Amino acid sequence: MVLKFHKKEMLLKHFYIFGKKAYMNNILVTKEVTKHFGKHIALNNVSLEIPRNSIYGLLGPNGAGKTTLIRIINQITYPDSGKVYFDGKELMPEHIAQIGYLPEERGLYKSMKVGEQALYLAQLKGLSKTEAKKRLKYWFDRFEIGEWWNKKIQELSKGMAQKIQFIVTILHKPKLLIFDEPFSGFDPINANIIKEEIINLKEKGTSIIFSTHRMESVEELCEHIALIHQSEKILDGRLSDIKKEYKNNIYNVGMHTEKGEALLEELSQKFHIISSENNQSEQQLKFEIQLPETDSGEILAYLATKGNLNNFVETIPSANEIFIRTVQSKSINE
Amino acid sequence: MNKLSLIIKREYLAKVRNKSFVVMTFLSPILMVGMVVLITYLAKVNDNEKQIIALLNESDYFSNEFLTTEGTSFIHYHNITLEEAKDSTMHMGYSGLLYIPNEVDLEKVTARSFFYSKDSPSTNLVDRLELVFQERLRQRRLQDLGVSAKQYANMEAAFEMNIASFNGKENVKGVNEIKAFIGGAFGYLIMMFIIIYGGFVMRSVIEEKTSRIIEVIISSVKPFQLMLGKIIGTSLAGITQFVIWVISGGILMLVAFSVLNIELSALSNGAELVSSIHPDVVTPDQSLQLYAQEILDIPWLLLIGFFLVYFVLGYLIYSSIYAAIGAAVDNETDTQQFIFPIIMPLMLAIYVGFFSVFSNPHGPIAVGFSLFPLTSPIVMLMRLPGGVGDGGVPWWQLMTSIFLLMLTFIGIVWVAAKIYRVGILMYGKKPTYKELYKWLKY
After folding, report:
1. N- or C-end of chain A: fewer Cβ atoms within 10 A?
2. Where are the alpha helices (DSSP H) in B372-432?
3. In this complex, do A108 and B14 lie within 8 Å of one another by their Cβ atoms?
4. Interchain contact B213–A (C-beta under 8 A)
């Protein structure tokens, strides 16, 4: 998603540097953020715009720089150069209270009681004790885990501890939530509960950054994605736009026809048939075909005259495919 | 509530509620007092064993010099040979046989006297016997020079150097040692506190790393706040423990000694030996008042004031190093390599203190080590009971020492905080010193 600036706005001061639209619509903007660790570059000129009230997927292979970027947003580390804007203002220490962070490397004090610990972490985020208690009660009831209050973390299973961890992350009702591999450590049932809670939070107006390399959850949740690879952003935008860009007009066709062989022969002279399967006895023909940009309607009409069409579907690349394709092409280019 | 105080509170409670901490708090004084009582008791039992020494005296030079005392009694043999005496001593199970042959000359008598025993005799006993011979020899030689036994008895003189500072304040001999000892106790306290509670800080940092809670916390507070809160919380827990130790230990000690009826003087019975032989030597009682006066003269307020200064600065320096070590490693076994360099200056301070400052509180070694920031909290405190300014530690030294300590404090805490900040997010292999240096630049 590239923003088009009006020239007049470009001339305006610092505050409007991203244009009014960016300020209004984005909860978080990073501008050419660079971070070195010694000689190693962890982030190289990464600029992102994370829209309000959506789930933003931050993708990339291990060691790409995702965690470093997230740590910069959380002000755990600081960029060597570049700026981060939160809610239209330059990122400041007091913004910590408006960000919730569930790190990938996460845990709780093992020998501390659940309730006490949750209260402590909530108070560190700036909640008052009474307010924290009230909200914790709500969440403990909602997850039906009220009886854990006086247990120690070491007495709970890993999945149980993860639930507590999730609650303390969102308890202070942050404007921006950052989840780094949130589903690791959950069984499928609990993962689903958490997924629903995340969607719920989004619907209530929270903006969410979702960092993962598990693509199936990306498809389900994210409206926007950015792909970080070898310290650089190599792709970002609305997931549906990216898919459109990455689709290559390959159609999956299934039809009932007597003259399957002849039809395939005829089509392959004009188009590229990627794969085909012709079942003579059942008179079933299945094939994958690469079509030119705009011709699908014509072909569809033509095929309809040749037999009974069962399906004619454009294969849209999965996020996973896009991920792998982009990363690979990037690696080959270098 | 302020975040720092929240952290301090949590660290304090986590420490104080820890089972092993509670057990240590209440068990240690009992164990310590038990040890002291046991040692005292054993020493007493050891001394109480009556030693019987057989004496075969063929010489006229000795008659009634060997007196039966509390711990030793002498059985005199007469008119038997040495071999018979040996056999008899062995049979009777006496501790030993002292043989004094008959010779014309006292010098020869003493030269040929022997002490026979089954086991090697205690040094205490041998000292005693030697003293008798020495005394006899001295008397004899003086007699040869024309001094009568009576004259000799009157000649014994007790003398102690009168010591005073230039401003005329009188001192008692040995008071330097007493003062250094009091200072040493303070210095030792600091060292123990650093080693015990610095270790606690380190372990608590490692725990946060291994439980992976660290990143959750530092997304809410600054790493430096966490480190500081941890150090303060742990030291408050340490102070609580120390206070409980001192109070309960003191009470227990009092109870134990009154119940077991052990006098503290039983611990030091060396003096009895001398006074039993020279009854006219001045007893310590006479100078006791002076000692008491000296101890009262120690500038306690100043000492305690500076103790607090050195304690706080020294402890903060060392415990922030401990915190940095905890952050740099993943588990406790990896810490050894890093801990040794911290314990070194502490040990050095204690040894230098005890060996050098005791004998010469204002010598170059004492001055040097009391200025060097890593040892000054201990060594300077050993010097301070002598006072500050006139006759004591010069003000410039004290001020320089504190100034250097503060500079070091700032420098070390800065370095430690940097290592801490990077280290807490690093997992995997143990870093080398070179890598730690690199972290400073992240």
Report:
1. C
2. 376-383, 395-423
3. no
4. yes
- Summarised one tens digit per residue, pLDDT across range B14-62 is 999 988 899 988 898 888 888 888 888 887 776 666 778 888 888 877 7
Check CB contact under 8 Å for A101 and B216.
Answer: yes
Asked if A120 lies within 8 A of B442 by C-beta distance, the reply is no
Structure tokens at B301: 């307020």
Helix (H) or strand (E) holding A4: none
Question: Looking at residue B262, what is its pLDDT?
Answer: 54
User: Which residue ranges form the domains of chain B, and what is each CATH number?
Assistant: 3-31+172-439 (no CATH), 49-155 (3.40.190.10)
Q: Which long-range contacts (CB under 8 A, 24 or more apart) does B198-201 make?
A: B198/B315, B198/B318, B198/B319, B198/B321, B198/B322, B198/B342, B199/B322, B200/B15, B200/B234, B200/B237, B200/B238, B201/B230, B201/B231, B201/B234, B201/B319, B201/B322, B201/B323, B201/B326
Q: Which domains does chain A have, with CATH numbers?
A: 7-244 (3.40.50.300), 248-315 (3.30.70)
- Rounded Cα distance, B368 and B275, in Å: 41
Q: Determine the residue type at B223.
A: P
Angle in degrees, 0-180, between the axes of helices B175-210 and B300-328, rounded to the nearest 10: 30
Judging contacts by C-beta atoms under 8 Å, the chain A residues touching residue B420 are: none
By DSSP bridging, strand A232-238 and strand A40-51 are unpaired
The shortest CB-CB distance from A123 to any of B6, B216, B442 is to: B6
- The SS3 of residue B164 is strand
Under an 8 A CB cutoff, do B212 and A107 touch? yes
ipTM value for the complex: 0.78
What pLDDT sits at residue B272?
43
Nearest one of B425, B14, B435, B11 to B223, comparing CA atoms: B425
Q: What CA–CA distance (Å, rounded) separates A216 from A198?
A: 15
